[in-house]
Design a protein that fits this description.
The chain is an all-alpha fold. The chain has helices at residues 8-29, 33-70, 74-105, 133-150, 154-191, 195-228, 232-249, 256-264, 270-283, 286-302, 309-324, 332-343, 349-361, 363-389. Helix 3 packs parallel to helix 10 and helix 8 (256-264) packs across helix 14.
């Protein structure tokens, strides 16, 4: 009961530590039963992840597109467009900075196994997805645009119910078992002797992610300053309560009341605040985009793969769409992005698991970046609204 009340990040840290301890003890005793049992669970869990990913895409992208299409007025499209562009700019900036810095701190091939120890699963249960990831994306776009075009209420309600089911699967099945899944991955890494290089690399990527997120907050308010003339320093200071609240809640939605209160200090019209802030909490995930781009580049370099611009730019463009439709729960961004990681970057189960671990480790900072950026978008949309009315 006590463990149940612990937050996700502490559970994840406990899982990592437990996995390392199990791996060290198993290696010293040359008994790998527990490691192989954990590997068995991780293999089954990984297969279930592959199975559920197409459903996650359809459940969130299709209603999200339909919602935008059915929304009233030009401002909705403008706000969604700004959120998408923000994610693309964040992801592209992360790529170029990562391409400059990460190769200097990550040695290629660090995830390539260097041990002959057998830590394979005892068995695995195949769960073939009902469709491929790209098929799911095309289906989601088709359904979303179709529902917006014909203004279908019945199909929209069905998909909203389906969304509730999948959100429940993510919230009550995937996320609770992720610490055990991560424990299995780290036990395996420890047993095969790869763990300390992995931790060193993760810490370097983690620091770079947070620095870039903080810089991106400043950039957003500088852009808002050039467009509206609002003092960026004062605007950011006014949004600090929302930033620090998000660090604690790890949820853009749970931070909405504080974000609204903070945005009011920046002299934004009340109707714009009431419209942009809740919408931004759902569709503006620039902080998560930075994390997913840099983390994926780090994992690729560790796997001996060079992240080229030809590989990463299409991934970033698709990631922007996925982030706009990502489920608004802790970890929703990385869950929605797993399909892209698999189909576009060819990530296997172990690589996806490392992505999940790194994402959850910085989730508080990513969420804080998201909600603080919502304040900058609100400033810009407020100016656009006044120009439209005049």
């Amino acid at each position: 009961m006590m463990f149940k009340n612990i937050g996700l990040l502490p559970k994840l840290i406990i899982g990592i530590i437990l996995g390392i301890i199990i791996g060290l003890v198993s290696k010293s005793m040359e008994m790998y039963i527990i490691v192989r049992l954990l590997s068995t669970f991780s293999a089954i869990f990984g297969n279930f992840l592959k199975f559920i990913i197409p459903f996650v895409i359809i459940a969130f992208v299709a209603p999200g597109i339909a919602d935008l299409g059915r929304g009233a007025g030009k401002l909705l499209g403008i706000t969604a467009g700004i959120a998408y562009i923000s994610s693309i700019v964040a992801g592209t900036s992360a790529y170029f900075i990562g391409a400059t810095i990460l190769p200097n701190i990550i040695q290629g091939g660090e995830l390539v196994a260097k041990s002959g120890i057998n830590v394979d699963p005892y068995f695995s249960i195949e769960m073939a997805p009902m469709m491929g990831v790209m098929t799911a994306l095309v289906t989601a776009f088709l359904l979303g645009l179709g529902m917006a075009g014909i203004k279908s209420k019945s199909l929209f309600e069905v998909l909203k119910d389906f969304q509730s089911i999948i959100e429940g699967v993510v919230k009550y099945i995937l996320i609770p078992f992720i610490p055990l899944h991560i424990a299995g991955i780290f036990a395996k890494l420890t047993t095969t002797g790869e763990i300390f290089k992995t931790i060193r690399t993760f810490s370097s990527v983690f620091v770079l992610i947070i620095i870039l997120q903080l810089c991106y907050i400043i950039i957003q308010y500088i852009i808002a300053f050039f467009y509206t003339g609002k003092n960026p320093v004062r605007s950011i200071i006014n949004m600090l309560p929302a930033y620090f609240t998000a660090l604690g809640t790890q949820s853009s939605a749970a931070t909405i009341p504080v974000t609204i209160q903070s945005a009011r200090k920046n002299d934004i019209d009340e109707d714009i605040i009431d419209f942009v802030i809740p919408l931004g909490a759902t569709i503006h995930l620039a902080g998560d985009t930075i994390t997913l781009v840099l983390a994926s580049m780090g994992v690729m370099l560790m796997s001996g793969i060079t992240p080229t611009i030809a590989t990463m730019i299409p991934f970033i463009l698709m990631l922007g769409v996925t982030m706009v439709a990502a489920p608004g729960i802790p970890g929703g961004g990385v869950m929605a992005a797993l399909g892209l990681l698999e189909s576009m970057l060819m990530f296997g189960v172990a690589q996806q698991s490392l992505m999940i671990a790194l994402h959850f480790a910085q989730d508080s900072f990513g969420t804080a970046t998201n909600v603080t950026g919502d304040g900058a978008i609100a400033i810009i949309v407020n100016k656009i609204s006044k120009q439209t009315k005049s």
